[in-house]
Specification:
Layout: H1 7-12, E1 15-18, H2 30-37, H3 46-55, H4 57-61, H5 72-84, E2 90-94, H6 102-117, E3 121-125, H7 129-135, E4 139-143, E5 146-151, H8 153-158, H9 160-166
Parallel strand pairs: 1-2, 2-3
Antiparallel strand pairs: 4-5
Length: 169
């Protein structure tokens, strides 16, 4: 049970979280934002920083730029990168693609797939249901705050009720 744990204790237990909004320190550089993600670590985190820069090459190019000067999609990359700096076992993403262009959305989904392939479990809340279900091993569809459907992503996409109510037909 993690409900009584402080946020930093949850991070120590392997949880990473990317909130939907206000998820970067706008007055810090990209690199400083990533370093903030390593606040609980006592080891050399340069390898993890290099992995984040490999995952998001634009961040390496902009490492000295203030996060507040970045586009929305780049800020999301910083937020995900900062969460990855904690070396989480579970990464929770809240509406990671909200407000970004379709091209950036596709790129972010591709990066989420890459992160999942490293063995990090992903828990995603996402408005773009079809794309999220396309990459999901397991999906949950909530209706008025209650779980209505649970299945593989592919099975939920194929479910006529889910398609009609949530996927536009």
């Amino acid at each position: 049970d993690i409900t009584a744990l402080k946020p930093q204790e949850r991070v120590r237990h392997g949880m990473g979280f990317v909130p939907q909004t206000n998820n970067v320190f706008t007055s810090l550089t990209v690199e400083e934002n990533l370093e903030m993600g390593a606040f609980i670590r006592r080891d050399d985190f340069s390898d993890t920083m290099a992995q984040v820069f490999d995952l998001f090459p634009v961040l390496k190019e902009k490492r000295s730029q203030l996060a507040g000067e970045l586009s929305g999609g780049q800020r999301q990359q910083v937020a995900v990168g900062r969460a990855l700096m904690t070396r989480p076992e579970v990464l929770m993403l809240d509406e990671t693609t909200a407000g970004v262009s379709p091209i950036v959305m596709d790129e972010l989904f591709d990066r989420v797939i890459e992160v999942a392939r490293t063995g990090i479990a992903i828990l995603m809340v996402e408005q773009n249901a079809k794309q999220a279900l396309n990459i999901a091993d397991k999906g949950y569809v909530l209706v008025q705050g209650r779980n209505r459907y649970t299945d593989t992503g592919a099975a939920l996409i194929a479910n006529p009720d889910v398609r009609k109510a949530f996927l536009g037909g």
